Amino acid sequence: MVKKLVTVVFVLLCADFLAQNDSTDVKENTDSLSTKFNIPLFSTSGGDVDNDLEQQDVSSLLASSRDVFAQFASFQFGVGRYRLRGYMAENNMIMVNGVNVNNLETGFSSWSSWGGLNDVTRFVEQRIGITPNRLGFSGVGGYSNIDSKASSFRKGTRISYGYGNRIFAQRLMVTHSTGMMQNGWAITLSASTRYGNEVYIPGTYFIGSAFYASVDKRINDKHSLSFTGFGAPIQQGRAAATTLEVYELANSHYYNSLWGYQNGKVRNSQVSSAKRPMLMLSHLFKINTAEQLNTTLFYNFGKTGFTSLNWNDAPNPRPDYYRYLPSYYYDMGDTVNGKIWENKWANEPNTTAQLDWDRMINMNRSNLTSSGTRARYILENRIENLSNVGINSVYSKRAGELFITIGLNANMQKTRKYKELEDLLGASYWLDVDQFAENLGVEESFAQNNIETPNKTIEQGEKFGYDYSININRAEFWGQAEYTFSKMDVHGSLSISNSSIWREGFVANGKFPTTSKGESAKMNFLNYGVKGGIVFKIDGRNFITANGAFLTRAPEANNIFISPRVRNDQVNGVTDEKVLSGDISYLAKYPTFKFRATYYNTTISDQTWLRTFWSDEFNNNVNYIMTNVDQNHQGIEIGVEKTLFVSHTIQGALGMGQFLYKGQPTAQAWQDNNNKSLFAERTVYLNNYRIGVSPQLVTGIGYRYSGKKFWFAGITFNYFDQVYIDPNPDRRTAEALTKYVSTDPQVNLITEQEQLPSYYTVNFNAGKSLRIKKKYFLNFNLSVNNLLNNKNIITGGFEALRWDNSNISKFDNRYFYMTGTTFMATVNFNF
What is the CATH number of the domain that holds 811? Predict the structure, then answer.
């Protein structure tokens, strides 16, 4: 019924387009590619952005207000974990002032780097898909560029307060800009603070601040300098997905296993933190009216942390551990213990359903040795210390209808990774040994995490466990040409780059005494990319575009080493990733009607996939590696907007995709605590399994009314379908089924991929602006998500990598639930 309703509305909207009468005398667009050096920056200011920026994934966070589908992807579909075209982050380039801020190791750019700086990150240019980019050679997902230079902002001050129940409860922002002054200086400053404690999910909290400073100096007509620095330190208590059985036992879809009571106070065990500021210094040289050179030096540095419990010679403390669930005993026919655990979950929620901090502390204090109390439980902090320095230089020239851009960028990134002891939980020390290797080696040193300091006692704040860095040096040279004809535009781009990747260990591990300390061999990847496209101008209102790209890129650095925490050994069979992509679009732009329909098809091949988990088959931690992982992403995107009357607008969006694994990857596995290969060439039958990162069908219909007295209100209906659980590759191997005949029902349980139920949401937003004494402005905005308060929506999940082929339900799938009704209300005072 929902699908039929959405289809009818789309037909009506598009039928109206077929009857559209262009009564406006419009001069034919002869240069749809910008003829100016400064590419237009599309402002995303307004209540919608202020209210929704805080919870969107970076892959859909930054959107131009001009593309209807991009708007829906950003502010409507994001709550359902939707990713544009199903792409992972490395396919989308995120830039600040023309500098690529995607992490070289992961390809990901976290919004937390500028979270809370809404006022100075609102000017964004975004293009989706294969597109010309005068700032860099972007991937097949497109690019977003934030213009945060001081001279981009008008003179004025803005004070903003927000209150809501999403990630944080309260937010205060203050921004002041001088604009470009007569003396050639422009200064913009911004700061914010955000706070929330158990705002929606029990046990969670959020503490964040942010700062921004930018100074521009126009030296003369040819030269100008610009400095920008920003940072957004945060600390956040996390939540975790769990199984349907646990949600039912806890009687809540927002159960969180990561917290418990310590001395009567709530404490979260997994706290993420980030302090990674970025500094940029730019020089703009306007050589003449047709040429310019823009060069930026940048430095990104700082730490992230992630706390987690660790234990030795003690029971697993996690309350949703499978042995603490009734199903574990019922599956063995032990109804007595099954009933006991049911009663524990029902009657002892503070000690059974949540972490029992007091019990862990008491066990530590009772573990007396000659050196004091040795910790059985600790809280560790997994730290990543980043240093990324680089240069980005772009030369541009216009020669008649030809526009040429040439760029050079170079990065040196080092990420040092180690653990620090965060809390001894009442004990006096922790012994720096590998508990999984204590009884395996002939030599006493085998279990030592650092053979140079054997049996070292670790106190609070000290490093232990592992200590290494991932180093990446990358340089790229690229060029782009755009040419404008009367009825056609064309563009083409070339890129060549070299990446050098290596590991350096700072401790000698007992399991790998010769390969853990020092530098590994350097892996060098020489890559290239080519892309191009054409725009056919049917007339001044209708366009057809076609684009294509082929590029190679280095694999993710964290997938190159078998066990990067403890050794330099590299994965066999790692090679460059290849990306082949194309898209074709039809666009219509009328005064009261906008429409875009796109078909895209992208193949990403020769990827490497690495995960570490406990394997019951081998009774050990296993580094599980797949090579030759191929994926195909294809589908259609439709965005339509119709102005019915002066103040009434209807929008619609449809994204229908098919995101699949293709081919048969090869798996290898290595025992984590020695150099033993468990298997080398295991075929994984993943062909045509769905990639479980995003809904593969999304659609939305929205209505907005804009009143004459500077107010607006809008409501949107969104529908999500084709949502799949991400598959465990080892369950799709012949070895997983050796104990079954083909007709056994267990075969389907092991190999089938779960599709989650479809769902819909209704969202609402409204705003009002007041002008006071013709010089002050007061703005009110309200955004409400999941207006119907549906708390039964599963937005995604994953199969546990640890599994038992004799009892598939022992390690069941884990799921994420969408929150019920959430809101964000803001008031802004501008003067």
Answer: 2.40.170.20
